Amino acid sequence: MNKNFYKILFLLLLLKPSFGLFAENKVDATSEYPISTEIYLYQNDFAFIREIRNFELENPKTKQKEILLKIKNLPTQIIFDTIFLKADKIEWIFLDYKQKEHENSNYLSNFKGKELDIRTKNNISYKKSKILDVTKDFIVYQAENEIFTEKIENIIFSTKDFEYRPNILLKMKNNNTDSIELYYLTKNLSYSTNYNLFIDKNNNARLESFVTITNNSGVDFKNVNLNLFIGDVIKINKTNNSNFVKTKNFTNTTTYKNTMPTPIINTNPNSFSIHRFGNQNKFDIFNKMGKIIPFFDIKNIKIDGKYEINTSYNYIAKQYHRNIEEKIYAHNKIRFINTSDFDFSKGKIKIFRENNNDFVFISENFIENISQNDEIKLNLGESFNIYSTRKQLNYKKLDNDIYEIEWELTVYNFDKNKVKVDLIENIIGDWEIINSNLKYEKNNYKNIKFNLEIEPNQNIRVKYSFRTRL
Asked: How many CA atoms lie within 13 A of 222 on its CB side?
């Protein structure tokens, strides 16, 4: 019996670090906050963080070969597999979540009047239970129109209702340094881009942009260098640099060399570039708050505008016995080239046009990521002064699935200015054009386009026929 007891005791002592039993391990040093932070924000709610942190030994006079370091004030959803540390020698590293915090009555007092999901010791679950009162040992809550009083220790709370703040615990060689570099990826830290386009009466425009940073990471970031990555994180690879190894299991002994590259982070094929705000621009990004930062302001953009009438497939191959009365209104389309020396990230763009020495809001669009020298196309909405009507001149069924159809369209311009209109006819099936009174372009296998110029208060008739196999 005694031999078995000592064997079990020996095994427990041996396995102690692997279970994260740090209660008896005295922390030798603590790092509360970083002294330098650099953030790379991605477009899919991820951020890559680089921090430099100082720490002080609690007993600096004691000569220790190894120290137990606690790193505090980290994001609540830090991704453990992406943690990289610059240090000489690390025996193990552990991400320690304070998951017992909600058993503290002072902490639970913050939830008075709010709803939490709870489960009792009898395994009875109540969703959205309203917390009425919290004392030192008891909690009073309302569930299913009844009021209950339970000991706090007998209640199990849903983890989704609490932000568990992690700490990093690591055992490392004492190399007489007082700082450490920390790299990691975290969720719930992202940005969005918004644009305002102001078009004057000469079709010259100014484009201004601003970025909104959303921080739901659980921590404040102060005095940070900010970088915006135009792209999404897909996966994080292990580095192929043999100078260092990344540890998943903190029980493994891992040696880190003095040089420490950042992780290799793959992004999707639509990723473009990084916009750096520069060291002279540092920002405070507080938790649960949005921060708006001016991005850029570009002037003297030349706008090219056209109207577009894009017909529906529903008209083309059906037979009509009378004229179609419905009007198809033109959409006012504009386009311009990104001639700047940087890429545009996806976001909302509001369009304003000059009217009586003021700018009036006319439309809102969403643009995808735009690289340098790419074209941006925007829709300003329908123009009720420019529209088309149509009537079917011929409809023949030549075979079981072969048809010959002729259409006549009239495009009207009741605007006070001469306009350019792209009339796009969408055709279904395996088709070919037989006749047309005007020149057209075959855009692709789906449609043809007529480029029209119409004087004020005038109209143009377009007549064409096609054969199709449906």
From this structure: 5
The tens digit of pLDDT for each residue in 414-465 reads 999 899 999 999 998 899 999 999 999 998 888 999 999 999 999 999 999 9
Domain with 403 in it = 303-338+374-469
* Rg (the chain; Cα; Å): 33
**Residue 350: inside a domain, yes or no?**
no
Task: Give the tokens for residue 360.
Answer: 């009036």
Q: What global pTM score does this model have?
A: 0.69
245 and 114 both lie in a single domain: no
Q: Could you give the CA distance from residue 113 to residue 133 in angstroms, rounded to a whole number? A: 8
What value does the mean pLDDT take over residues 343-360? Answer: 92
Contact of 58 with 28, CB cutoff 8 Å? yes
CA 282, 286, 288, 290 dihedral sign is negative
Does residue 237 lie within any of the structural domains? yes
Does residue 352 belong to any structural domain of this protein? Answer: no
Instruction: Tell me: do 183 and 256 sit in the same domain.
Output: yes
Q: Per the structure block, which two tokens stand in for 305? A: 């505008």
SS3 for 109? helix
What phi and psi, each to the nearest 5 degrees, are found at residue 63? -85, 105
Half-sphere exposure (CA, 13 Å, Cβ side) for 34?
22
> Do residue 181 and residue 81 come from a single domain?
yes
Closest CA to 29 of 175, 184, 182, 178: 178
Q: What is the mean pLDDT of residues 302-330?
A: 81
**How many domains does the chain contain in total?**
3
